[in-house]
Structure formats: structure tokens, C-alpha cells
Amino acid sequence: MAMRASLPDTVTPEELRRRLEAGNAPLIIDVREPDEYAGGHIPGARLLPLGQVPMRYRELPADQEIVLVCRSGNRSGLAQEWLQAMGFRNVRNLVGGMRRWNGPVEYGAGQRR
Question: Known catalytic residues?
Fold first, then answer.
């Protein structure tokens, strides 16, 4: 049986931006709090605050690549470890989080800047 190559545990902001621009974006999960998310998030990112991950992880597709994002990469790193412990294999952490993100940003209910 062939083993599927595993993805690296992280993705750079530049790589994620290129993939967004090419229409090849993974599922992006923002684990910050709702007020942080409303203050600016990556277009298409779904909000799932870190504290809700243990109760709501079944909502996430285990067979799809997921990129986790927070402000700096710490909370998303915790979510990544937890999801990997629950059997998720294609979960990556955005290096530097929103502090390093230099791509498009949506605000509130989807306004872009």
C-alpha cells in the first residue's frame, strides 16, 4: 500500500497568498475570537475560536487540507496539535499568523480592503 506524502506542518503567508490568487486555496480556519475575526481576516476563512475546537472539530473535513490561522501562530499551533491528536493529517499552521499576512483582508461581513 502506498503511503500518501504528508504535508509540511506549516505554510508561509506567501505560499497561501499565491494559492488564494490561483484559486487553489485550502480550507482556512481562523481560531481567533469573533471580535478579532471581524477586525480583519483572510478572505474565505471560517471562524472557529480555539476554545470551541474540542467541541466542534467534527464539523471539519478530515480528508481535506486545512490551514489554521490566528494573530501570531500560537493559538493556531495549539489547534493544530489538538486536531492532529484527533487524527487529522492535513492540518497546517500559517507561519506568523495575521501579523505576517500581507494578502487581501475581509472585514466584518465580507468587505475587502
Answer: 70
Strand bridging mode 91-94 / 66-69: parallel
Reported as type and span, the H/E element at residue 76 is helix 74-85
Exposed, middle or buried, 23 (CB in 10 Å: 0-12/13-18/19+)? exposed
pTM of the complete model beyond 0.85: yes
In whole angstroms, give the CA distance from residue 98 to residue 40. Answer: 9
CATH architecture of 10-102: 3-Layer(aba) Sandwich (3.40)
For the chain, what are the domain ranges?
10-102
Comparing 98 with 112, the larger pLDDT belongs to 98
